[in-house]
């Protein structure tokens, strides 16, 4: 037989459920369509055992220097979650089910729109790892993160919103294709992302359609990685294209050959292992990797990769165009007790997994690229299950091909992604078919051909019955030289040219380096050439984002002066665009419009400048001129739904209401979850407070005052959530609009309401919040709430001293909120070098909130830095031991104190009876406390108990700290969250 159809698979469990999760049947109104071969989608809750995260901390986390995934682990303005329940409860999760004849998927909107289940109905194989519980570990940027399925990471890794909800809609195309659209509003830069999980009739391919839209007026950086989890064991193998000869660690700090590692990698001497156990250097097999390990391919020209389960006879392929999707990566906790302990933290019984990750516009981590204001990047990624063909040596969205080259025998196996009659599998030598086989195929079936051929010369093809090529394999020629490895940039004084100084600073800024600032490089560049255009614009942009508008304008003008000294029409008009942004913040609207008009001469900046100009014209009520600007952009520059919204507003004001409604309706057909268009249509408004706030600002800036106020009213009535609390800032924004409209009493009332709002998780960010808070302080210098909030905003945006000054003023005004006191204490230590004041403020905060474990933990960490004795610290903590034991990090610190006080028995009791949850980058903290306790008790070092949640590592990973105590330039994580770090030299006075 040349084929194996689904009816021939006797031993596979083809149920779409397993212990822990039971998937519902399709609704009766869709079941008939499914039976006829259609693709269907519907919403129906799914009951899953869930370990709930704790409520986030009430304190903002200013973690700019936290090393996370190789870049900045800054989490502000998101609240930070620090704990997870030890007990699972059955919880109903919103779920969207997508299904056709071959594949079943589950999308979870409340968890970032991730694909939680990917199931091959033909073979009964979960080609994506199915985690039957929601069991977060403290791995995510903001705390909780879960394993399994597919996580879509942007604008950095891991996704800031991975444990936050997205909005969804189901779209059914005329051809029967179904797409589940998920809309995410980035909580950091306020950009918009939509990913559509798409399934077509009669196809096993899962397509992901992505639209990344920069809805802001600033250029931003981003990356996109899709993390696909796969269940693994000794017989699981990852496969990359055959032209992959090397793989690299994060930031290309290290290399090794692939698939046979030819040197030590992540502390493991693979060649030495292979000398004792042949094949142990093959790092494409999970069983051979004993430590947490990442590797990313280097320099492949192919479009596919994936993983294969040799025991189950199934796997998956990922395919995307290499020109935009070069990133292909494997991550594992490692097949050893240390990694297995992490697996246990993330699941109850579904075992270990690896992540086979696909990067778009990125090929390493961290590796960020740029997105212009208003730009929309659109791309697709594809996954599909493969049956028992073995690892794929070539793949397309139509088919996958395995070319076996065992000694003395050669064989070819192939599988397709949709039904194909008369498929021909051929081996060609010198362009002539020397062997072939024909069969009817469908997904889940395999065609196999055994033949004698020279694998170094032959070509293998799979064509459909009409002769169209589905997939072809040819041998890879040549051995590439060893790729380059990254190096740490030299110090500024060691760099010869202004250009290299500028580019080094740009790299540090673009890649969000957590411990190296671009400022010394840019300052050195300007010291050598004060008029350098690139460096002045980089510094102006930085000043603008830190709300130093006057200073930014000086730098922009300096750059423009040189740019236009001999050429009034420079090749790049970014300086004029940035000048417009700065002038608008300074209230110089007409001058800003002139700057944007000039910026529009440059094709790169025509769209951003045209939008900003049209929006400002609408604000002034110059509607026809605004419409002319928008018309000049139509069909010339890229798609931007913001322009569509402005066009509809202009048409409506000009009395062309039917045309405006039609414009919105047409746009929503293409983009059903665009927030501003939905608000303007009035059909289905967004629900997230962050989205509504940003839409309100966009409408305010277009002169839609009443609409903006209505949305801000809704935000001000909204709930406090783990995504934050926008109620106070919504009121302050209302006040600025009311003030501008001359409604002075109403503005005063809005500010009073802002002061009365509960400020839990109220962490403002961005220029609009800054300007509204500054206006409130100008209106009432006694507004301690506005001072407190603006202080947080300034401190989080790098203006540490200015933020600290606002907090001091708020305290003098009599505000003794524990969050304010704690924030001021952190600033007093970090940038004020006032240790006594820092301690005094913590004492005041603890007096106000004595039962706050986070507060007491931070105070104890400060006590360590102030060289307080172990006895003094213990005497402070022992009376509140039950409170101490509510936190893992606090408990570990307390255990060390117990040992120091000769109470190792109590330390041992705590470690063996209390459950710990390690956090990524913090591995080893509980283990070190365990070893310290055993040593104090005179006992031999033994493996830790299960309560610690971690195991002893076999190998030493790359160290994050150098011998001199400095953070290694290439560090990917650090145990400390670096709340206390002297920063006076890094921030402005």
TrEMBL record:
Q: Which residues form the signal peptide?
A: none
Highest taxon above the source species = Bacteria
List residues of the DUF5107 domain. 74-386
Q: Which SUPFAM superfamilies match?
A: TPR-like (SSF48452)
InterPro entries hit by this protein: DUF5107 (IPR033396), TPR-like_helical_dom_sf (IPR011990)
The protein, known as: DUF5107 domain-containing protein
Organism, by scientific name, is Microbacterium aquimaris
């Amino acid at each position: 037989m040349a084929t194996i159809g689904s009816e021939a698979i006797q031993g596979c469990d083809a149920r779409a459920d397993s212990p822990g999760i039971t998937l519902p049947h399709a609704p009766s109104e869709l079941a008939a369509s499914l039976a006829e071969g259609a693709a269907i989608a519907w919403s129906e809750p799914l009951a899953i055992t869930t370990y709930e995260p704790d409520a986030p901390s009430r304190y903002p986390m200013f973690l700019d220097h936290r090393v996370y995934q190789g870049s900045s682990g800054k989490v502000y303005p998101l609240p930070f979650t620090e704990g997870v329940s030890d007990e699972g409860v059955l919880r109903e999760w919103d779920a969207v089910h997508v299904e056709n004849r071959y594949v079943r998927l589950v999308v979870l909107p409340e968890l970032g729109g991730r694909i939680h289940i990917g199931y091959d109905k033909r073979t009964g194989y979960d080609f994506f790892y199915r985690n039957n519980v929601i069991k977060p570990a403290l791995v995510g940027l903001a705390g909780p993160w879960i394993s399994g399925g597919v996580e879509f990471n942007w604008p950095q890794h891991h996704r800031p919103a991975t444990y936050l909800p997205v909005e969804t809609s189901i779209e059914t195309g005329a051809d029967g294709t179904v797409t589940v659209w998920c809309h995410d509003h980035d909580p950091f830069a306020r950009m918009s992302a939509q990913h559509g999980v798409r399934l077509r009739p009669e196809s096993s391919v899962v397509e992901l359609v992505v639209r990344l839209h920069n809805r802001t007026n600033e250029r931003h950086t981003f990356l996109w990685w899709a993390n696909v989890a796969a269940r693994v064991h000794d017989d699981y193998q990852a496969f990359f294209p055959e032209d992959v000869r090397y793989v690299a660690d994060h930031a290309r700090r290290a290399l090794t050959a692939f698939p046979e590692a030819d040197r030590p990698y992540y502390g493991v001497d693979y060649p030495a292992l292979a000398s004792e156990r042949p094949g142990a250097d093959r790092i494409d097999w999970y069983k051979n990797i004993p430590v947490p390990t990442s590797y990313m391919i280097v320099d492949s020209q192919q479009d596919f990769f994936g993983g294969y389960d040799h025991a189950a006879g199934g796997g998956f392929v990922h395919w995307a165009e290499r020109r935009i999707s070069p990133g292909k990566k494997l991550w594992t906790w490692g097949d050893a007790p240390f990694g297995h302990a992490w697996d246990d933290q993330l699941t109850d019984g579904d075992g270990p997994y690896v992540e086979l990750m696909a990067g778009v516009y990125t090929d390493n981590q961290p590796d960020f690229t740029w997105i212009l204001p208003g730009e929309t990047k659109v791309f697709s990624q594809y996954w599909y299950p493969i049956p028992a063909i073995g690892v794929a040596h070539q793949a397309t969205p139509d088919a996958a091909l395995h070319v076996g080259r065992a000694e003395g025998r050669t064989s070819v196996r192939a599988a397709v992604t949709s039904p194909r009659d008369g498929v021909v599998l051929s081996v060609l030598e010198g362009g002539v078919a020397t062997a072939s086989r024909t069969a009817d195929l469908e997904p889940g079936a395999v065609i196999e051909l055994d033949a004698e051929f020279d694998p170094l010369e032959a070509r293998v093809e799979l064509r459909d019955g009409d002769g169209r090529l589905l997939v072809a394999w040819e041998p890879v020629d040549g051995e590439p030289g060893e790729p380059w490895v990254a190096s740490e940039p030299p110090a500024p004084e060691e760099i010869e040219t202004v250009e290299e100084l500028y580019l080094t600073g740009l790299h540090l800024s673009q890649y969000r380096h957590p411990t190296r600032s671009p400022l010394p490089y840019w300052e050195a560049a300007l010291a050598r050439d004060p008029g350098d255009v690139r460096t002045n614009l980089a510094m102006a942009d930085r000043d603008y984002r830190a709300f130093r508008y006057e200073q930014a304008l000086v730098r922009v003008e300096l750059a423009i002066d040189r740019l236009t000294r001999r050429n009034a029409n420079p090749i790049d008009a970014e300086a004029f665009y940035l000048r417009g942004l700065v002038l608008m913040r300074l209230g110089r609207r007409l001058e800003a419009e002139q700057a944007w008009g000039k910026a529009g001469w440059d094709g790169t900046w025509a769209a951003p400048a045209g939008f900003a100009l049209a929006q400002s014209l609408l604000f002034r009520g110059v509607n026809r001129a605004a419409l002319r600007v928008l018309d000049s952009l139509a069909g010339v520059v890229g798609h931007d739904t913001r322009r569509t919204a402005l066009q509809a507003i202009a048409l409506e004001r000009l009395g062309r209401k039917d045309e405006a409604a039609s414009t919105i309706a047409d746009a929503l057909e293409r983009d059903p979850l665009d927030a501003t268009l939905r608000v303007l249509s009035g059909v289905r408004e967004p629900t997230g407070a962050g989205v509504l706030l940003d839409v309100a600002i966009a409408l305010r800036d277009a002169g839609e005052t009443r609409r903006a106020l209505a949305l801000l009213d809704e935000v001000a009535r909204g709930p406090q959530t783990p995504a934050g609390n926008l109620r106070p800032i919504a009121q302050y924004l209302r006040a600025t609009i009311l003030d501008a409209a001359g409604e002075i009493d109403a503005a005063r009332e809005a500010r009073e309401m802002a002061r009365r709002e509960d400020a839990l998780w109220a962490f403002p960010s961005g220029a609009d919040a800054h300007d509204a808070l500054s206006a409130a302080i100008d209106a009432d210098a006694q507004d301690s709430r506005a001072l407190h909030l603006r202080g947080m905003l300034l401190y989080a945006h790098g203006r540490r001293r200015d933020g600290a000054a606002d907090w001091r003023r708020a305290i003098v005004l009599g505000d003794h909120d524990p969050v304010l006191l704690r924030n001021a204490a952190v600033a007093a230590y970090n940038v004020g070098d006032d240790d006594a004041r820092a301690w005094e403020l913590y004492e005041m905060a603890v007096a106000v909130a004595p039962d706050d474990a986070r507060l007491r933990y931070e105070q104890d960490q400060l006590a360590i830095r102030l060289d307080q004795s172990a006895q003094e610290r213990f005497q402070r903590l022992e009376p509140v031991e039950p409170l101490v034991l509510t936190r893992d990090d606090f408990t570990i610190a307390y255990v060390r104190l117990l040992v120091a006080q000769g109470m190792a028995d109590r330390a041992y009791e705590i470690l063996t009876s209390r459950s710990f949850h390690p956090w990524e980058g913090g591995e080893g903290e509980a283990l070190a406390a365990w070893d310290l306790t055993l040593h104090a008790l005179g006992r031999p070092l033994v493996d830790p108990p299960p309560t610690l949640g971690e195991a002893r590592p076999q190998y030493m990973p790359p160290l994050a700290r150098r011998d001199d105590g400095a953070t290694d330039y290439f560090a990917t994580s650090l145990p400390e969250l670096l709340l206390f770090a002297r920063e006076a030299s890094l921030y402005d006075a």
